[in-house]
Structure formats: structure tokens, C-alpha cells
């Protein structure tokens, strides 16, 4: 049955109860403020209000001319998106130059004969925007309607003059700016044109688009020519290979042989050499090598060979790599020689053509590559040219715009043009402006706010716990019962005060609400532990004045009325109360029984059927020693055998340790807490003390509960019984 409250819940009832709890002082504060506001409203002098209207044009002609973009920059605009341009103009009207000029022009003075100050003037001046329009409403309050009209007309007149001067100064500033920019823009035009011209000259550009088309066409033609040339080269290369195969030599050797065959001097020496060699062959058949004839022929052969080498160098410019006589069919003038000469001529012509075609192919490829490189460079050239052209066009456009705007700004500079005009001159109401209702309403609002502030300040200063809900949140124990506090109304008021009620509610008023709550308490105690009967119950509280003794006595009566044998022991040996409640003598009691000075039968008194009371007796110097003695433990064991229930009324927890000592010999502690008496510090200290000492707390009893402060209690449902039956158990507490 633990109570849980979520931190995110907003307890509106709690705040309502706080406002109700300190209503008296809060109401006093509220009444004082409202009374002061009423007095101020009644003592105020009548004032008159005059108002005029100013209409604003959205477009600023001068700004449009100066910037060349009137749609964007030629409007009244504000830097803050949350505001409108009229907000800025309203502040201009309220500015010090215009206000001070108005005060001086009209010679406005205060009650002391001094000129009205800027702050005092602005208190009476109001400049506001008429929603959905481009119109400002200018109003002024004064004790004289004529003065209010003059002020409104004068301030609008001064503002219009200031607006015209401002626009004119803007035109002058715009013209000076244009004059300063024109030389720079003109220079930028010249530079842009020069850069474009130099770019075309350096890259030999006339028309890039036409050049791109012609270059692509030329590349296609070159590709076709290169293909045809390569085919011709292959043809001549094959023909030359066939001719070289037929003559069995290279074209160089064939050319050399033909040249030598055509040389008469070379052939003459070559013929003589052949003859000498033939003679030498014949003579060697006849003579030995040592014969002078052989030697002479050998010398002649060597001389002719040397001469032949000389003639080779003279004819072909070099010596042959192989002897001339080793060339095939080296017989000039013979048919085979003529055929070889013809083939040689064809081979030479073919190789010459092949060389020419090869050179032509290389030239064509080189030209094509240059065209391709040009084609690859064209996009970059085009982009660069486009950028330069764009810069030139931009500079030219800026130059033309500045020239045009300078002419128009010069015209605007000589005109009286403003953004505002008066749509309605000042008009004053014939009746004084009534501020009494406003002052009174302000007083009510301020008084209500101070009421709330006062109530919550008092609540913060009061550290006591006010409701059962707060008690449960701190102790977190099972709530076994709520004992209401009787209240009565003060005649002719709504104030309720605590009513005096008999201490024996259960005995004297058995049908009352309080009696029923004690019966519910004893029933809840019975149901706490179905498996184990509760015999000995220690009743205590955190601090004094919480009503633990009253709860103990009425709980004992409720149990006794059900037929149980109950013993009520007053173990509060510091401030005993049970003998006062039951109107008994306290000469003999618990302390005398413990020390053996009196018999138990003499100390125990039967106060009603089934209920015996053992008072405290004489207050001892050391109560803890008596309550913690073996004799006390033995007495409690005997009492639990003799009686069905033993209720022990002990001292408060935070003052002495009597309750904690007695709880060890009992079945548990019944903790009594009274909202309005116990504070948070004491409650937290008592809870920590019980947790540290590991006490068996049976539950919590909220005593002296104010029903009006407990919106969560079940007592409100008892109103139905009180309405239907005046003799019902709840009528006695709810009839008021």
C-alpha cells in the first residue's frame, strides 16, 4: 500500500490548497493594491488625445535610381524579419531630434515652467501601425485638446521635412558615389576590351565556331590522304622487294653496279685487269711463281687492282664492300646485263617513290596532329574568350547603367520627394480620455499577482507539512488511518476554526466520523498480518503535540468496543497524558510496578468494559533504564498473555529513546503524524531513525486532518450521507 508519486505530474490541487491556506494575508495585500489603484484612478486629471495619420510609399525612388534595382532595393525594408519597415519609421518619429525640435517649436512646458523633457514627451506620444496598411497612427495625450492637436500636426510636419532632407541627401550621396565609380568602371571596360583583343591576336582567333568546323573537316581529309599514302607505300614496298629478289642485290648495290658499268675509265681498267689475270693463269701453266714473267704479271695485276680501287672512289666516292667481279651478271653490254640494268632502274625509281611517299606520310601525320592539338585547345580558348566577353559586357552594362542613373539622380536631387504623406491631420476627441478603468484593471491584476507572490512566500517560510499526501511522500509507510479534525464556521464569515471535541470520541460519540475512522484503524491493524496476531503495539510520534496519546486512548476504546480485552499503558514517563484523559490519579502507575513498589492490580484501573488503563505513575529520573529493564520485558510478556491487545503510549521519537527501546519487545510501532505540526526536517529525521534502528513500523496514522486541505481523502464522499441522514455518522463533522 505504498504511495508513489511521479515527478513529472503537476499537482494543481497542491497549488490551489496553498492559495487557500494563506488567503487571509494574501487578501489583505490584494485589497491594499486595489484600493491604491482605485484612489489613483479617482484622483487623476482628465486628458485629451489627438491623433493623425501618415501614409508611406513602399518604393524609394532615389534608392531605385542609385542602385538600378528598384524592385529589390527601392522599398522600405527592415533588417529584422520579425519587424516591418514602418517599425523603423515609428522609431524615427520618436527619435530625439524630431521630438526636441517639436518641443522647442511649440515651447511646450511642464508645471514648473521648464521645457518638457524628451522622456516625459515620449510618455504621452504613441506611434503605432494600423494593421494591414502602410499607415502610421501618431497620437499625443495632453490636458488640453488644442495642445494635443498642435503637437501631432507639428511632429508630422517636422518628420516630413526631415524625410525629404533625408531623401535629398541620399540622392546627393548616390550622385557622388556614381561620379566616383564612373572612372573606375570606364577603366575596367577599357581593360576588358584590351584583354579580349590581345587574347584573339595571341591565339590567332577569328571565329572559333567556324574554325572548329573547318578543323574537323581538314582532319577528316588528312585521315583519308594518310590512308591512301599508306596504301601506296605498301604497294611500292612490295614492288621494290620483288625487284630486289630478281637482281639478287639491294638497290644500293644495283645502283653501284650500274654506275660502274657506265664508267668507261673504270671498265677499261677492269678489262685490262681481266686480261692480265687470264695471262697469269696461262703463264703459270708454263712457269713457276718465281719466274720473272710470273712476277711481272703479278706486279701488273697489283698495279691494275690499285688503279681499279682508285677509279671506284672516283666514280662512286667509296670502295666497294665486295669486289666488282663478284656482282652477278657483271657483263656490261650483254642481254643479261641490259635486263639487269633495266630492273635496277625500276628498283631505283620504285625506292625513290617509296621514300617520297614515306616523307609525304610523315608530313600528313604531323599536320593532322597539329590540327588535333588545335581542336583540343578550342574548348579552353572558347571558355577563356567567353569569360573575357562576359567581363567586357558586364563592364559595359555597368558603365551604361551608371551613366543613365547619374542623369536621373541629378533630376531627383533637385526635387522635393519623400516616402510619406499626411493622410489625416490631427483630430482630437471632444471627450477626455478615460483611464480609470485601465488603472483599476491594472490594480486588480497587480493585486492578484502580489496575492500569489505573498501566498507562496509565506508557504516557503512555513516549513511544516500541510497535507496527508506530503506526510505519505516523506515517510513512505502504509497509511492505516486518517483522523479528521472537527471544524466550525465563524458566524457571518467563511472562516473555519478548529472545534473543541471530547477526547473520548469513540466512547462519547460512537456514531461520529472520528469514531468510525478509529474503527477503520483497528480493522486495518487486524488485516496487516493475517498469519500472526498483533498483541503489543507501541504508539509514538516524531514530535510532541501530534496527538499520539489521544490516538492511543481512542484506538484502545475502539478495540474494547468489539469485545477484545485491551490494556492501555502510559509509557510516556516524561509528559504522561493518559491519567488526564481518563481523569485518574497518577500516584501509582507503571514506574512503581517496574521497581516493585506497587502491585499490578493496584496500579491498573478499569475505565470501561474490556479496557484497563495503566498510568505512568511518578516520573522517574531515568525513564530509559526502567523501560529497558528485564522487569519491563517480563511485564509486557505477561500482559500479552492476559490481554488481547496491549497499547503502549510512548514518548516522541526525536526527543528520547523510550519508543525505540519498547519497540523491541512489541509487535511493531504505530507512527502518528499530524499535518501542520510536524515539519519536513523532523519527519525526515524520524524516518531515518526508524530505518537505521531497523524498526518494524506497522503503519502511519494521520491525525488532525483538515478535510478542506485533503482533496484526495475519502471524507468528501461522506457528504451524501450527511445530506440524507442528519443522524448519520458523518453529519457531526460535515454539517458545517
Compact overview of the structure:
With 736 residues, this protein is α/β, with parallel strands linked by helices. The longest helix has 79 residues, at 335-413.
Give a quick set of tags describing it:
Alpha-Beta Plaits, 4-stranded antiparallel β-sheet, Rossmann fold, 736 residues, single chain, alpha/beta
Any overview of this molecule?
With 736 residues, the protein is α/β, with parallel strands linked by helices. It folds into 3 domains: 19-178 and 414-428, EIF_2_alpha (Alpha-Beta Plaits, 2-Layer Sandwich), CATH 3.30.70.1130; 213-380; 468-734, Rossmann fold (3-Layer(aba) Sandwich), CATH 3.40.50. The chain has 27 helices and 14 strands. It has an 8-stranded mixed beta sheet with strand order 5-14-13-8-12-9-11-10, sandwiched between helices. The protein has a 4-stranded antiparallel beta sheet with strand order 2-3-1-4. The protein has a two-stranded antiparallel ribbon with strand order 6-7. β10 and β11 (611-614) form a beta hairpin. The longest helix has 79 residues, at 335-413. It is elongated.
Contiguous runs where pLDDT drops below 50 for at least 5 residues: 61-75, 490-495, 722-736
Can you count the beta strands? 14
The CATH H-level homologous superfamily of the largest domain: P-loop containing nucleotide triphosphate hydrolases
How would you sum up the major sheet? 8 strands, mixed
CATH architecture of the largest domain: 3-Layer(aba) Sandwich
Strand content: 5-15%
CATH class membership of the largest domain: Alpha Beta
Strand order of the largest sheet: 5-14-13-8-12-9-11-10
Counting helices, strands and paired strands, the structural category is alpha/beta
CATH fold name of the largest domain: Rossmann fold
Q: What value does the Rg take, in angstroms?
A: 66 Å
Q: Roughly how much helix do the residues carry, as a percent range? A: 55-70%
The averaged pLDDT comes out at 79
